[in-house]
Each structure stands twice: as C-alpha cells, then as structure tokens.
Amino acid sequence: IRKELEKLKSEPSVSKDGRRVELGANIGTPKDVKGVLDNGGEGIGLYRTEFLYMNRDHMPSEEEQYEAYKEVLQKMEEKPVIIRTLDIGGDKELPYLNLPKELNPFLGYRAIRICLDQPEIFKVQLRALLRASVYGNLKIMYPMISSVEEVRAANEILQEVRGELDQKGIEYSKEIEVGIMVEIPATVVIGDMLIKEVDFFSIGTNDLIQYTTAVDRMNEKISHLYEPFHPAILRMIKMVIDHAHGGGKWAGMCGEMAGDPKIVPILLGLGLDEFSMSPISILQARKIIRGLSYSEMKKIAEKALNFPTAAEVKKFVAEEIDKIS
Length: 325
Ligand code: PEP
Ligand code: MG
Hints:
Elements: H1 2-6, E1 22-27, H2 33-38, E2 44-48, H3 50-53, H4 62-75, E3 80-84, H5 112-117, H6 119-132, E4 137-142, H7 148-168, E5 177-182, H8 185-189, H9 191-194, E6 200-203, H10 205-213, H11 231-246, E7 250-253, H12 264-270, E8 274-277, H13 282-290, H14 294-304, H15 310-324
Parallel strand pairs: 1-2, 1-8, 2-3, 3-4, 4-5, 5-6, 6-7, 7-8
Helix pairs in contact: 4-6, 6-7, 12-14
Residues 143, 183, 204, 206-207 line the site of magnesium ion (MG).
C-alpha cells in the first residue's frame, strides 16, 4: 500500500472535480522537515516553536531561534511555512519562567496571554521570525487568541518590531501573512470580526474540542467524551470556514482531526482550504481527496451537520462515502 501511496508524492491534492487544497504537516523541530518532504508535504501548517524553549534552563536567544526558523524556511524552499508563536502553559511547562501553579492551567496564564504580558519575550521571537522571513514563505500564527483586542495588541507589537528592524536597516519580508489559531469557542463565534484583523484562520481542534465540550484532552477517564464528530464541533468548523471565506481569506486546520481519514472527506466538503497533519498521514489524505468530488462532499457535509449524535453523523458519512466510492 505504501508503494501505491508513494506515487502520489508529487501529485497535486485535488478533488475529482478540480478543487485544490493544500496538505501540509505539523512539526516540532527543524529535523522534522525531512519527513515532511519525504511524504509529499506541500507546506508546514504548524511549527510548534515551544520545543525550542523546553527541556533547558534558559530562554533560547534571538540568534538560536533565527537559525531554527531559517533552517525550516530554507529547507521548505518557497513552500508556505506557518510558524506559531510561543504556546507555553497548559500542559507545557517552562521551569525557568517561574509560571505560577494554577488550578486550571488550560484556562490560565498561557500562550499569547504570556506573550502580551511579557512583550520582552515575545519581541525576541518576532525579531527572529522577521529576520528569518527573507529565506522563504513565512506565515506567522498566534495561538490561543480569544478576542479582537488580543490580535490587535499582538499585531501592534509585531509592528513595533518591524519599525525597530527598519531603523537598523535589517531586511525582512513585506509579504508575511499573519493569522490566528481558532481553538476557543468565543473565537469561533466572533470569527466574522476577527477575520478582518488577520490573513487566515487555522483551526486547532485539539483545544477546540476540549474547550467546546469541556473535556480535558489529557484526562483518560473521560477520553470517550472527546469526540471530533460531536455535532457542535462540526458546526463550529463550518462557522470558522464560512467566516474566513466571507472575509475573502482562507481557513486551515492543524489539529489532529485534519489527518483523520474518516473526517477528511467532511472537511473537504465543508470547504477547508488547508489541512495540516502528521507527515505520515499526508499521502493517505491525498489519496482520499483525489478520489472524491468536492461538490458531492459538500452536499454530504451539509446533511451531516443535521444529525443529533456523533454516532449518527459517523454512520451517515461512512454510508455515503461507501455509496460513491
Ligand atoms: C490544537 O490545539 O489543535 C493545536 C494544533 O495546538 P496544540 O495541540 O499544540 O495545542
Ligand atoms: Mg492548541
């Protein structure tokens, strides 16, 4: 089967009726890029930069970050690379930051909240990103955005950093797209307003499922309640994509759902533009997409949104796909 999939390495990710999507990969370090290219990845949909900061006793320097971002951008040549700014807190700790012990770390001091509270940390990363941007097709993404104010504040800091580089005559790309992760229900609901502030959305379903259904993604006792096919989740995904398209922008997904063969057809039907997954899932997802018609999946996805339970959604989708393939 792997041999069969290998043939799709340089084929486009396009449906039978010509809808082209981008299949990218999630990575944690520059070393992961090889696996992305070996598996026919068309981009990086999520570079989790936390790993640069973890398992050490001090902050990575601007230079160290610059080298890592540059390496990824260069290796990916002109393919899009979405680098997510620091998403620490929640389950990911940084001992040297002296983060307070919290009762609810996933609802606490984390990610963009830390970066806006400690702009000196954020600015180092943004400087490294801007400097590296001349080596490829960089897109910057803020995690855990919950309001328009946060996007504006983050963009203001980014603008400040641009100004500082201008003053020093340091080059950076003028075409960097800036987007946000949509992983909090409030963010989904105000998507029509948020899209005016950014260039793209990327749906973080790992957290979106956790926050929407109040199911801790780390708690095994309730893992049976962690359900991507929950009707609320599917409806939220549709809202995010519709808000992005309504604003003339694009929507991607970088949560685990994006690479699930059972869900890829529905995501295609809902109009998702970019799928980012573990590198090993890319060729399989490409095969699925190339075997389906977007217009057919669109109708099926619309109907799927009207079933009251996850089990019924799953049964319906499986049966419909069986019929057409
Ligand atoms: C997500 O929440 O879906 C996501 C991609 O980010 P992380 O898993 O790093 O929280
Ligand atoms: Mg997340």
